[in-house]
Design goal:
The complex is a heterodimer.
Chain A (H helix, E strand, L loop, with lengths): L2 E7 L9 E7 L4 E6 L4 E5 L5 E6 L7 E7 L3 E6 L3 E6 L4 E7 L5 E6 L5 E6 L4 E6 L4 E6 L9 E4 L5 E5 L3 E6 L5 E6 L3 E2 L2 E2 L5 E6 L4 E6 L3 E6 L4 E7 L5 E6 L5 E6 L4 E8 L7 E9 L6 E6 L3 E6 L4 E5 L14 E3 L7 E4 L4 E5 L3 E6 L2 E2 L3 H6 L5 E2 L1 E3 L2 E7 L8 E4 L5 E5 L4 E9 L2 E6 L10 E6 L5 E6 L4 E7 L2 E8 L9 E6 L5 E6 L4 E5 L4 E5 L7 E6 L5 E6 L4 E5 L4 E2 L1 H9 L3 H4 L7 E4 L6 E5 L4 E5 L22 H7 L3 E4 L5 E8 L2 E6 L2 H7 L12
Parallel strand pairs in A: 1-60
Antiparallel strand pairs in A: 2-3, 3-4, 4-5, 6-7, 7-8, 8-9, 10-11, 11-12, 12-13, 14-15, 15-16, 16-17, 18-19, 20-21, 21-22, 22-23, 24-25, 25-26, 26-27, 28-29, 29-30, 30-31, 32-33, 33-34, 34-38, 35-37, 39-40, 40-41, 41-42, 43-44, 44-45, 45-46, 47-48, 48-49, 49-50, 51-52, 52-53, 53-54, 55-56, 56-57, ...
Chain B lengths: L1 E3 L3 E2 L14 E4 L6 E4 L4 E5 L2 E6 L6 E8 L4 E6 L3 E5 L10 E4 L4 E5 L7 E4 L4 E3 H6 L14 E10 L2 E10 L2 E8 L4 E8 L8 E8 L3 E8 L4 E7 L9 E4 L1 E4 L12 E4 L4 E6 L7 E7 L4 E8 L8 E3 L2 E6 L2 E9 L4 H5 L32 H17 L5 H11 L2 H14 L5 H18 L6 H8 L10 H10 L2 H10 L5 H13 L2 H6 L14 H14 L6 H4 L1 H9 L1 H9 L5 H12 L4 H8 L4 H18 L15 H20 L2 H42 L4 E7 L2
Parallel strand pairs in B: 17-21
Antiparallel strand pairs in B: 1-29, 2-29, 3-4, 4-5, 5-6, 7-8, 8-9, 9-10, 11-12, 12-13, 14-15, 15-16, 16-17, 18-19, 19-20, 20-22, 23-24, 24-25, 25-26, 27-28, 28-29
The chains are: A mainly beta, B alpha+beta.
Chain lengths: ~700, ~725
């Protein structure tokens, strides 16, 4: 297989933002996640927990609440006082509407999904009617004294519970008046705290209200009489979130200590019909505050300041004890934040509000040394990596995507409202940067940017569904063509791949298949047969123009663009099936590349492994060892050849965010150790003060 | 646990049940009354017989009578086409409402809360009211020629009536699901799988939110499940359904009589049929979740292979009379599963073993056991049965236990054990021990020790299976048996362990001589006593230059110095005889939990505690003789076990022991030894710290900086 010189990069100082809200949609089995920087991500739990969509964040938009309504419509509300609806097809914000109640702290969709309720800073609870294309203010409920931090509908839709500071109110939806006001005990372990914040409420169909508060209590109230039924003290710090299962037989709460508790409704004795809520299982998968929890039919979902999204399957609800029953922790985005200029050995890192350009170092060790160097050896550095550029965005919007051209002289990035293109000039060690001004109006916002291999063309997937081709020459650009989306579809394209000869462009959306365009003739060439699972990465091989597509269910297909059909190798793989360990990996493949001299090799990686697939070797079956970390010793060449299989895997670099081939013998690997992220998080807060 | 209660016979009148049995048993509008339709001309309303109606001679009832729950009337069809509706007050069926239909009726279906449905033989369905409005209306044909309806069931799902019926044509089965309100009819083909020539003998179905779970009992004796969606994805298309194996070989495939299957609740099914080809028919209740037989009842007079289940009552034709068996399913509890719950046993009923046998094929539909294997076992079982057609050896053994002499029992047990792995081996062993122990309790003179020893050595018993065994052995002070139990049982409670310990410590040396204790764990320590003294000196040398005891433990040192000779002697010779040592080792090996053990340890007399401590101290010294800190022998106690027990004994009895003059020196010796050991270990600690640097070096290699260039080779 040969050896590689690997530039092992750990200076990508990426820290994901903390998770603020999660909202589970039972109908589509999707999870919406909002982060503290305002980013909203959609995970498809049926498609191997793939992060299929995301909406970039905004500095002034701190999302405090997220909910699904009317089936598949997603709404969020935040401290800027606005309610927003997201367009899940075009991947943009449909509209934002001021609720005129100051910062919004909570939001809940009615059980029928046709109404939306928001709780505001000024103590008002506002009811909105959801119309097919907008929302419409209907009326205010009785104004309360302090901000409304949590809301919950009764499943019948007749009453709501609202958690505030020191008390819980029950409203009648018809009249809009408060029926009950239940005062929450301020006492905390015998000491009277200043205030008791009701972080979450849940209204059950039997009239029970469950509240969680800053004194570490989970309390059960009878909404008919307004009395406290039962109280569990579960934490020394705030209990910040609650989510109830649809069957109302179990619920989950998250605390500021990072613990998640599972409560279940179980019979008092083995054969009685009388049931009571019992705290059954504590889980400690977080180091920081668990800001939000969700309860899917089969799993507890939690997220918080430590940026991990954790899925903890409930073993009693999982029917098949397979790999899906395993705990899942998602930390890194399922898309590439890094691009690389092979020619100049540059890496472009994308952060929320800035870009960093680094030049890789070099080693004196030449080919000769490399031959003598053993696996795992560190080579002496003759030149360290340089930080060349720090490019800050203007405005409050997060960067959606960025790209550096293979020649290293162009950088492009996009936010929601603006597209930026820069020309870089290298004079010895100095770099000068010049912005290409006068971007055409259609290039306002891009979901994906890609340069052709010779850096003469720029491909932009706009959020209107169109693909633009721009010709770059010297310091100027010329718009060549725009592939318009097929009529009737507004689906945005999220992934692009261009063939090294520049003739073919492949584009993939979140659900519809992969389209291949002929760049020379400027027309749609073919569409790859649709597959059930979203595409996570794709690339076109040099010479053969085979399109390699990785899907979220860990299948990899190879499609010959000239022949418009799957290649023989791909058919063989599908016939034999992938190794079971390969299919059980829980992070998607995020990047695919090829070796210029070895046409049979496909290089791909996910967060925990890097793999070279050698198509000339036999495929492994379930009995063979997929990953062998040890070099073969004392084995004759014959045995070695017999046991060798197509998948050459390395798990040295992890978590691996990016890996690409710089030249025939050189790789670049960008790692982001979890310890480094944790070191940058705020210290775990045990006692949180309100409003800080 | 699901349980069948005492059966009772419904009628004293012999029903005119034909060879096919009854036509049907249906619920009436009162919970404890049932409509029985025989295969001739009569409909009877039962609690005790409350009403009986017959059609005229020459006419024949072709469809079981049902109750229209909305009106309280009864509906029956005779001569395929003639519908009769009457109520309790009517006497003569000939004079009641009559409607002649234009097509032949297969069945009338009625459940609580909705109007009855009429299913015609051609597959069409009508509501009763709609039909009565125009009895002569044209009835369309739904199913194809030669397709015959085999079975049908009617559900109400979310207040929508759903009708399912199964048809057969040339050995192929089809399921039709009719959503009555929306009039959507969906057809499914039931795929039979590889076993093409199996015939489905009985169906039952239950319904949950989204699926109808159709269970079928095949002629191979297995129960299969097929999930049918209530709301079809595409009603136009003909869809295929695959069945999955639910339970394997619950009844014999080639039984002469009919077999029947009924779902009792989500987890339980009742199966009527003979479990083995030769045996009598049996009604058995299976838990499909755990694949276990819950209970069963023999029906010696034979049945018609029909089974109905309404409101906790199972109905079947037993011999010539209609038998009702109430069925109850209590929620199973952990205590019940662990056998800690005492089962109340009905003396009259046929005792089905309460030891669940996990290895017999009958209950195992578990994934890893492939069908071939189970078939093989089944075949073997059949051979065995044919060899001894009358009484299986296990039954014989059980009857022997109840009456015969100890010697005879021993011979029988040995015979049985020589047979070895019969499929119900576990169960029989369990039953045998229980039987023996029951007899032991009843007859104080009866104590089949050898038998019990043999049974324990089969490795299939545990404490919770036969708690009485150790109780009796404790009463008889049978240390040999107790030792065996301690070695074999994984689940002895701490109180019993402690009781054993008490006996082991208190039993006289002379009575020990007579016993035949397993000496595996004991090594003859007397041999290398010379070596010992050297070791003692060595510990002194190890302290290397400084003597930490000098000022801190002056007194004890002095005391010790007074009788150095005595001390060495005492510590090097074993304080207990070898046999007792073997017994105590069994205690040391046993599993325990500190919290439960400590209170019981306090009950042991102080001199016995001292003796035990002495023995432990001796073992500890022996341990520290070699570098690996182990004792010689085949299965010696480990150092951790010794230390733990020293801690436990001191914890529990320190205040008592410290007051005893004879224990004082022992404690001081122990203290001294511990101190010297600690100093040794603190030295070791220093060495370890130096070596830790080595680890750091390793870590540094792994923890590279922010950037490096490395060599990677892929294999």
């Amino acid at each position: 297989m040969g050896e590689f010189k690997v530039h092992r990069v750990r200076f990508f100082n990426y820290v994901p933002s903390g998770i603020r809200c999660v909202a589970y949609n039972n109908q589509s089995n999707r999870l919406a996640v909002s982060r503290t920087d305002g980013t909203v991500e959609i995970y498809n739990l049926s498609a191997n927990y793939f992060q299929e969509k995301f909406f970039p964040g905004h500095e002034s938009r701190a999302t405090e609440a997220l909910c699904w309504a009317e089936g598949q419509r997603l709404f969020s509300a935040g401290l800027n006082g606005e309610i927003m609806e997201y367009d899940l097809q075009a991947l943009n914000i449909k509209y934002a509407m001021d609720a005129f109640g100051g910062p919004i702290w909570s939001m809940a969709a009615s059980p029928s999904g046709s109404q939306l309720l928001v709780g505001c800073e000024d103590g008002s609870v506002k009811l909105f009617q959801i119309t097919p294309d907008k929302i419409q203010f209907e009326r205010n409920f009785d104004r309360q004294k302090s901000r409304i931090l949590s809301l919950s509908w009764h499943p019948s839709g007749t009453h709501i519970a609202a958690g505030s500071i020191d008390y819980i109110s029950v409203f009648d939806v018809k009249s809009g008046s408060a029926v009950h006001k239940m005062i929450v005990d301020r006492q905390y372990m015998g000491v009277s705290k200043r205030k008791c914040i009701v972080w979450g409420v849940a209204f059950l169909s039997d009239g029970t209200i469950i509240s969680v508060d800053s004194a570490g209590k989970v309390q059960f109230w009878d909404s008919a009489t307004g009395t406290l039924v039962k109280s569990h003290l579960i934490a020394n710090a705030d209990v910040q979130s609650i989510a109830v299962a649809d069957q109302e037989d179990s619920f989950v709460v998250g605390t500021a200590e990072g613990t998640v508790f599972h409560f279940q409704l179980v019979p008092v004795t083995s054969n009685s019909s009388e049931k009571q809520w019992v705290r059954t299982k504590p889980f400690q998968h977080h180091t920081h505050d668990v800001r939000t929890v969700a309860h899917s039919p089969t799993a507890l979902i939690s997220g918080g300041t430590d940026t991990h999204l954790v899925f903890r399957p409930l073993m009693e609800k999982v029917e098949v004890k397979n790999y899906d029953a395993a705990l899942r922790k998602i930390t890194f985005p399922h898309r590439c934040l890094i691009s690389c200029s092979k020619k100049r050995q540059l890496l472009l890192f994308q952060f929320a509000h800035h870009l960093e350009l680094w030049r890789l170092g070099s080693t004196v060790a030449t080919g000769k040394f490399l031959v003598s160097g053993k696996n795992g050896d560190t080579l002496p550095l003759s030149k360290n990596a340089d930080h060349l550029l720090h490019l800050k965005t203007k405005g409050p919007e997060n960067i959606i995507c960025s790209c550096i051209s293979p020649c290293g002289s162009w950088i492009a990035y996009s936010t929601v409202s603006r597209f930026f293109l820069y020309r870089l000039n290298y004079e010895h060690d100095n770099i000068s940067l010049k912005r290409v001004s006068k971007m055409p109006a259609f290039l306002r916002s891009a979901l994906q940017i890609l340069f052709s291999e010779d850096s003469t063309k720029l491909f932009v997937a706009s959020n209107q569904g169109a693909l633009h081709i721009v010709q770059l020459s010297g310091g100027s650009f010329k718009h060549l063509h725009a592939f318009q989306p097929q009529s009737g579809t507004v689906e945005a394209m999220c992934l692009l791949a261009v063939s090294p000869d520049g003739n073919w462009l492949a584009a993939s959306g979140t659900s519809a298949g992969v389209h291949v365009y002929n760049v020379k003739q400027l027309k749609l060439h073919c569409t790859v047969p649709a597959y059930n699972f979203p595409v996570t990465a794709m690339a076109i091989a040099p010479n053969t123009n085979n399109l390699v597509i990785a899907h979220s269910d860990q299948q990899v297909f190879e499609y010959s663009i000239p022949d418009k059909q799957y290649t023989d190798w791909s058919r063989t793989v599908q016939k034999q099936g992938f190794h079971h360990l390969w299919l059980q990996r829980d992070t998607p493949i995020t990047h695919i590349s090829f070796h210029p001299k070895r046409p049979m090799h496909i290089l791909l990686h996910d967060a925990y492994m890097f793999c070279i697939i050698d198509k000339s070797l036999p495929l492994p079956n379930d009995k063979t060892l997929l990953y062998n970390p040890f070099p073969p010793t004392n084995e004759s060449d014959v045995i070695r050849r017999r046991t060798a299989h197509a998948f050459k895997i390395s798990k040295i670099y992890k978590p691996l965010l990016f890996m690409d081939l710089l030249d025939e013998r050189t790789l670049v690997a960008v790692e982001r150790p979890l310890d480094d992220i944790i070191a940058q998080l705020p210290p775990p807060i045990k006692k949180k003060k309100f409003g800080t | 646990m699901a349980a069948l209660e005492e059966e009772f016979t419904l009628s004293s009148v012999v029903l005119s049940a034909g060879p096919e049995g009854l036509l049907g048993v249906e619920q009436s509008d009162k919970t404890d009354q049932f409509l029985v339709t025989d295969s001739g001309r009569t409909v009877i309303l039962y609690k005790k017989p409350l009403g009986s109606w017959s059609v005229k001679q020459g006419q024949i009832i072709t469809c079981p009578a049902v109750c229209n729950f909305q009106t309280g009337e009864y509906v029956v069809v005779h001569d395929n086409k003639v519908l009769r509706i009457w109520n309790n007050e009517d006497v003569n069926l000939d004079k009641v409402f009559k409607a002649t239909l234009s097509a032949e009726v297969y069945r009338i279906l009625s459940v609580q809360g909705t109007e009855p449905l009429v299913l015609f033989k051609e597959g069409a369905v009508r509501g009763l009211e709609a039909l009565l409005a125009d009895p002569q209306q044209k009835i369309e044909t739904v199913i194809s020629d030669e397709e015959v309806i085999k079975w049908t069931k009617f559900f109400v799902v979310f207040r929508h009536p759903v009708l399912i019926f199964i048809t057969e044509k040339h050995g192929n089965y089809f399921a039709y699901v009719q959503m009555f309100n929306s009039r959507i009819l969906t057809k499914y083909t039931l795929l039979l799988g590889q076993d093409e020539n199996s015939v489905i003998k009985s169906f039952t179905a239950s319904v949950d939110r989204k699926f109808i779970s159709l269970m079928s009992l095949s002629s191979d004796g297995c129960i299969y499940e097929t999930l049918i969606p209530i709301r079809p994805a595409d009603p136009e298309k003909n869809q295929s359904l695959v069945k999955s194996l639910l339970l394997k070989a619950v009844v014999s495939g080639n039984a002469r009589n009919g077999v029947a299957l009924t779902a009792l609740d989500q987890d339980h099914v009742a199966v009527l049929g003979s479990p083995l080809a030769a045996s009598k028919e049996c009604l058995s209740v299976w838990n499909i979740k755990f694949q276990t037989l819950q209970t069963s009842k023999e029906l010696p007079q034979g049945t018609s292979g029909q089974l109905w289940y309404y409101g906790e009552h199972l109905f079947m034709l037993h011999g010539k009379s209609l038998t009702v068996i109430p069925y109850k399913c209590e929620v199973s509890s952990l205590a019940g599963a662990l056998g800690k719950l005492k089962h109340s046993q009905d003396p009259g009923t046929h005792v089905v073993s309460h030891f669940v046998n996990w290895e017999t094929p009958q209950g195992c539909g578990l994934g890893f056991q492939n069908s071939e294997q189970s078939r093989r076992i089944l075949r073997r079982r059949k051979i065995e049965v044919s060899l001894q057609p009358e009484v299986p050896p296990s039954k014989q053994l059980l009857s022997t236990i109840m009456k015969d002499s100890e010697k005879h029992i021993e011979v029988e047990v040995r015979k049985f054990l020589a047979l070895k792995q019969t499929p119900d081996f576990h169960t029989v062993i369990g039953d045998t021990v229980t039987g023996l122990l029951e007899r032991c309790k009843a007859e104080p003179s009866f104590y089949p020790r050898n038998c019990l020893m043999q049974l324990i050595q089969t490795h299939v018993l545990s404490y919770s299976l036969c708690p009485d065994l150790m109780e009796i052995a404790l009463k008889k002070k049978d240390v040999q048996l107790l030792q065996l139990c301690l070695q074999q049982f994984p689940d002895i409670p701490e109180s019993v362990t402690c009781a054993c310990l008490k006996i082991f410590l208190s039993i006289g040396d002379d009575s020990l001589q007579e016993t035949d204790v397993n000496m595996e764990s004991v090594f003859d320590y007397s041999i290398n006593s010379v070596h010992d003294e050297k070791m003692e000196e060595q510990t002194e040398i190890l302290q290397n230059g400084f003597n930490p005891e000098e000022d801190k433990c002056n007194n004890c040192d002095q005391e010790l110095n007074k009788k150095p000779q005595d001390e060495t002697k005492e510590s090097t010779s074993c304080p207990v005889v070898q046999k007792r040592a073997a017994l105590l080792n069994a205690i040391l090996h046993s599993a325990y939990s500190e919290t439960f053990l400590l209170p019981h340890l306090k009950d042991i007399p102080a001199q016995h505690i001292t003796l035990f401590l002495k023995y432990l101290y001796f073992l500890y010294l022996k341990c520290s003789e070699n570098a690996t800190m182990t004792l010689p022998g085949i299965h010696p106690p480990t150092l951790n076990q010794i230390m733990d027990w020293i801690c436990l004994l001191l914890d529990a009895n320190f205040t008592v022991v410290v007051m005893m003059p004879e224990a004082k020196r022992l404690l001081i010796n122990l203290y001294k030894l511990v101190k010297s050991q600690i100093s040794v270990y603190s030295e070791l600690n220093k060495i370890e710290v130096s070596f830790r640097e080595l680890q750091k070096l390793n870590q540094e290699k792994n923890n590279r900086g922010l950037y490096s260039i490395e060599v990677l080779e892929l294999f």
